[in-house]
Amino acid sequence: MRPLAVAVFSALSILAAEPEALALSALIQSRHLPFGTALDPFYASPTSSEITGYTRCGDSALWTGHYLAAEAFRFRVTASTDALSNATRALEGLQGLVDVTGNDSLARCRLALNSPFTAGIEREEAANGIFRNPALGYSWVGNLSRDQYLGVFFGLSVAYEQIPSLRPTIRPLATRLANFLIASNWSNPVFTLRPDQQLAILQIARQINPERFTSTYEVERSRLADSVSLPIAFDSRSTSSYFKFNLIYISFYSLIRLESSPTKATYERAFAIARRYTANHENPFFNLIDRALSTPYQRRDAESVELLDLWLKRPRRDFFVDRRSEVRICGDQACDPIPVDLRTPTDFLWQRSPFQLSGGGAGTIGNAGVDYILPYWMARYYGLIPSLGVPATTAPLASLTICKGSQTAFDHCRK
Fold first, then answer.
1. 401 confidence band (pLDDT: 50, 70, 90)
2. What are the backbone dihedrals phi and psi of residue 217, each rounded to the nearest 5 degrees, phi first?
3. What's the per-residue H, E or C state across the chain?
4. Rg of the chain, C-alpha, whole Å
5. Per-residue pLDDT averaged across 143-153, rounded?
């Protein structure tokens, strides 16, 4: 089959996935935002729809930022009022993560003091520090890492660009967060040796509030830009701590996209180091960021659509998998990327190594699906997938049935 025919076939095969994307957004709204930001539910058993608790609070800020970006792209493509409502709710959740700390820093997540789920989450996150704000009625988890800030700023940047009506809320929120990081001299959390990430945050701050942050960004750009390739080269030596590549991609998405000075070429050279290392990792999210920063490329873009189609075949619970008897092994990992539908369960698939051989749990944690809807709506926005024109109201969560044997895709499959 010729490349063009492959591309057309791939795009047509995934057109029917728009209802799936809408159903995932409905699922997130109904089950994954108990306190306004992204968490994953514990179910009573692998076949139960009863929620007994929540987990993955430690990365709630990160994935809420990604979810905000997903709904922002969806709104730009469809003008859906549901997308606007969902993005507004995610933005309110992120603002709550800043309000609850009382000092304009960011919380990993916040938990309602009167919730029956709070005690279990606090036990799970005790090592990060549990703090309370009785005046607001929440406790919150501290010990912030750089990835939480990067995920939030990524979401704020996309939403600011794609949903103008949210700008009056985004602008003061981004300003508070950036002011805090600057006032702490980038030491809480520590951004030492990560000029790429520091500049990415300042680039977004400049995008959102140019009056306040343009001069600050330009000063730091002149000081740090020539060194941005150093951590990228170091990170691109191995697949260990694979989440580092997600942070690289979301950082350079804004660094390059928003840069108009000659320094853009410096950023592009640094990004190319990571891109060369990961281009064959069969990662549609990374592919779509590369598409956004470069030009259409038929083979890459067709691959992205095919990989998203494979994502829909994955179970939606954390069932343990072990692929050691199914693939070629090189050392402690697969020699080649494991097919998307066979990879280990996780919160956001594209930040996990495609060479990981085993992982998962008991099938009692429900995954949100942000790792599908974000690249899906990006693919629509960047023209990889034409519009199907399915109104959100025609795709209620309970209308879809996608079950794989004994592994449940959605809870309603047990009806």
1. very low
2. -65, -45
3. CCHHHHHHHHHHHHHCCHHHHHHHHHHHHHHCCCCCCCCEEEECCCCCCCEEEEECHHHHHHHHHHHHHHHHHHHHHHCCHHHHHHHHHHHHHHHHHHHCCCCCCCCCEEEECCCCCHHHHHHHCHHHCEEEECCCCEEEECCCCHHHHHHHHHHHHHHHHHCHHHHHHHHHHHHHHHHHHHHCCCECCECCCCHHHHHHHHHHHHHHCHHHHHHHHHHHHHHHHHHCHHHHHHHCCCCCCCHHHHHHHHHHHHHHHCCCCCHHHHHHHHHHHHHHHHCCCCCHHHHHHHHHHCCCCHHHHHHHHHHHHHHCCCCCEEEEEECCCCCCEECCEECCCCCHHHCCCCCCHHHCCCCCCEEEEEEEEECCCHHHHHHHHHHHHCCCCCCCCCCHHHCCHHHCCCCECCECCCHHHHC
4. 21
5. 97
Which residue, chain included where needed, has tokens 């690249």? 375
Confidence of residue 73 (pLDDT cuts 50, 70, 90): very high
Neighbours of 49 (CB within 10 A): 17
Distance of CA 239 to the CA centre of its chain: 19
